Amino acid sequence: NIPQQSGFEYDSGEYILSIASPTSSLPQHHLSTCVAAALSNRSIVLYDTNSGQVTQRIDGVHDGPISEIHFFPWEYYGLGNDTISGNDGPGANNNHTPLIISASQDGTIKVFDIRSNRTSQAAIPMRLNLAKEQALSVSLGYGGTLAAVGTNKARISFFDLRYASGHNPSGNLMGSYVDSHTEEVTQVRFQTVQQPGNNVKKTVLATASEDGLLTIHDPSQPSEEAALLSVLNVGIPLRSVGFFGPAYEGAYALTGNETMSVWHWDSAQKVSDVGGYGLRGMLSDAVGNAGWKSAVASIGMNTDDAASAVEYLVGCTWSVIDEVSATSMQMPSVVSSPALHLLAGNSHGDGFVFRMDADQIKPIMHLKGGHKGCIRDFCWVNG
Fold this sequence. Notes:
This protein is mainly β. Helix content is 5%, strand content 39%. The chain has 3 helices and 26 strands. The strands form 7 sheets. Strands 1-2-3-4 form a 4-stranded antiparallel β-sheet, with no helix packed on it. A 4-stranded antiparallel β-sheet has the order 5-6-7-8, with no helix packed on it. Strand 19 and strand 20 form a beta hairpin. The longest helix is centred in the last third of the chain and has 11 residues, at 279-289. The protein is globular, with a radius of gyration of 21 Å.
């Protein structure tokens, strides 16, 4: 739940469906104090992370539930005149990236400018073109100039967000991939990767579906067939996917059955099933073995039986996360390089962060006291 005025109370009855932070879109060492939350009442609320206070609310964003929100990447604001809000200079809002994109089950995708006094009116409205088509996920690629949208009609649609001759981006539908999946596309994710054997970088798109397939495309190619790079047959309906590794050569997949697998996407080879259907038990055992007695006690279990400390998987991040002593939970140790981390949780609102190395699963952080129910989304901000 999210409150009406403060991030430290639970009194509004509104549920958080998606969150986003502009910090991950800003240049290195630039931190924002803003976080955006898409709520079950179809509004988007911006919070100050230092005070927990609401700084802005955009009501009536969509006519249906909001599926996902993102801030635009910081480099987008150097691509054209700032004609969306009429302000002088691109990205003129301290350390905020001022544009938010939202996707909804009402079939629309909208861009909002949080600097504008008319935030209830979308700066760039977009709509899917099939009857009863729902936007289930959205991702921004190529510096924010292209939006990919996964839909319930087994399609991935692309919208043009390029500036042209000083005018606002058109938001025109450029085309759709229609053969990659046979069931609804649950998540789409752009990533800039380094090609094997050289230093050349390119943008690829991962798409996940209820059909159990994780596909990788190169959207710069002229056709869907030419764009297809890999098909990873996970075999279980997919909920969350993404990239990891020094060159983002790896892909992870989280399923609706609370399982996880990791892949080398270029060769379409599975690296690990990460415990298969026993993953939650492995994670729960790791929590118990780490000595987090408070974590076990807080959810009413005997400290000798932590078999269900972890009930579901939330998502992954390829990040540098300071490891915390499992016994004191106070003394961080230095971590010099990024790693794949998994956030998992339980119905009591506890969150557990695990470092997912090839040879071990290591619990590094217990997040407690912030929630009273299931954790739906997260974004990791390295300070």
